[in-house]
Amino acid sequence: MNTSRQATAIAGALVIVGMIAGVLSVVPALEEPNYLDLISAHESQVIVGAVSQFIMIPAYVGFALLLYPALRMENEALSLGFLGFRLIAAMFHFIGVIFLPLFLVLGQEFAQAGASGTSHLETLGELLRTARDLVNHVALIISLTLGDLLFFCILYRSRFVPRWLSAWGLIGAGLAMLASFLVLFRLADVVTPLYLAINAPLALQSLVLAMFLITRGFDTKTLTTGHQHDGRRG
Which of 48, 119, 121, 147 has its CA 20 to 30 A from that of 86? Predict the structure, then answer.
């Protein structure tokens, strides 16, 4: 297996690692109405969620870094944009990781406070939960999908993967961005059937793309052929 083929295979594996970590990063207790009562009893959920979201950082950035050399041969500007948006998304992932331990502190304070001293903690908890949703489901997703749009544009133009797979990614990224705007304008809640359904096409496409990268990799012969044709036209 040559270096380029090995890089695409590892990149595909990182997609799967990121998807698994994404599922594990969900903290069910935080989605409950009485989440402040539940946090202390579900501390392990919060810790697993934080660790899983942290794992997503090297998975998402590593994917872009591994594919960047091949993507750059097709379009350096779009490739840099894709990598840049992945780095921005990594920053938002890190902010999301930091939020989770704050819930543990808040849960401990809530458990120790008397009935008359919990109102301000409930207000703080709602602000913290809203901020986490805006980071994870708006800022993070929009930065990722903007990068994905550039990524799939490169793939569509280069034919490194079948065009139907690139087109599927473009549509899925657009829908995922739409879901984020629905959350931003409070037209949809996170972890609801509507939100999950709108994000499903991109999630399924990511899994198919990962398997394609692992088993077949990029078809870079199309890039060589395209450059030869461009030279003849020149």
Answer: 48
Alpha helices in the chain (DSSP H): 3-24, 35-38, 43-74, 76-112, 119-134, 140-158, 163-184, 193-215, 221-233
Asked if 63 and 45 count as a contact pair (C-beta separation under 8 A), the reply is: no
Q: How large is the average pLDDT for residues 43-71? A: 97
Give phi and psi for 197, each to the nearest 5.
-65, -40
Amino acid identity for residue 33 in this structure = P
Question: Which pLDDT score is estimated for 29?
Answer: 94
Q: So where are the chain's domains?
A: 3-215
Which residues, at least 6 apart from 40, have a Cβ–Cβ distance to it below 8 Å? 104, 107, 108, 110, 111
pLDDT in tens, 187-216: 999 988 999 999 999 999 999 999 999 999
Angstrom distance (rounded) from CA 77 to CA 222: 19
